[in-house]
Amino acid sequence: YGRVLTEKMFKHLRKWFVTRFWGHSRQRARLVSKDGRCNIEFGNVEAQSRFIFFVDIWTTVLDLKWRYKMTIFITAFLGSWFLFGLLWYVVAYIHKDLPEFHPSANHTPCVENINGLTSAFLFSLETQVTIGYGFRCVTEQCATAIFLLISQSILGVIINSFMCGAILAKISRPKKRAKTITFSKNAVISKRGGKLCLLIRVANLRKSLLIGSHIYGKLLKTTVTPEGETIILDQININFVVDAGNENLFFISPLTIYHVIDHHSPFFHMAAENLLQQDFELVVFLDGTVESTSATCQVRTSYVPEEVLWGYRFAPIVSKTKEGKYRVDFHNFSKTVEVETPHCAMCLYNEKDARARMKRGYDNPSFILSEINETDDTKM
Fold it and tell me: Where are the transmembrane segments (predicted)?
């Protein structure tokens, strides 16, 4: 017993030392962060290509950060109010409605009670936001003023529709729904159903479901083709399943998804001893439709070799109370428990093949059965 305990302590110390010193000394570049953001930038983009972003102005505005969006929101309204305020001032100036021209008593102005640039700005504000205090108003004296009133009203409706729609669309984006989908901090490798599997735990923090959920993964690594071409971020498909498949998940409670490490898996030739020396990034995707808004959302996260624990499984988190309710303890969501696990997938399958051969019999082609005639020496 003491020997087993010593081996376990040595194993933990070795793992802690490798993770603590070797892992921190080599910072791995991640394409996808733990919260799903992509770590990539585009350089040397032509000016003509940048102009395309302004052609698709709606998507560009939606993708802006909130501080830039609010700046555009405020600038659009203040700019339009001030611009039309200048135009109203010009109309009053041309028609000589301002007090500095000393209009006669029977003079009918284009806009009542505009005495300067400030009053023109206030009238522009009242017109565009349809306040209508009743003190300043357009008369039928000037066709130019009537045309300007119609133009500002139409432009004001367009600005209101676009800016309010952009803010509402950004608030209701399914990206925010994805924040309530969480993945385990680590991935683990252990036996499941007699097979060596890579397991990840995912949970839905809301009671509303994701309809038509589909989960899959991509393994990103640098590969060299037989022609000598080096491909950075080469993508390899990783199939993840649960016991009921990988589509239309009943996502009411945390699920443990797993990838079977077989002969077709890129993890087949990896072992517990050389896992940390590998250079890869496992990106996991979860696609689904939000039940309340019918919008499609995608959740993603990634795991580097330091975040893959070999020889562990996840601790159970679902229990049943005395009242008959099911309870999920998220304190153990990312908690792992060490279990006995083969140190490589090849060893597991070789062991299975050896056991299968022991159960089978083999014919010996050089074996010849010779018949012997028995004689009965007993005579009566």
Answer: 72-94, 145-169
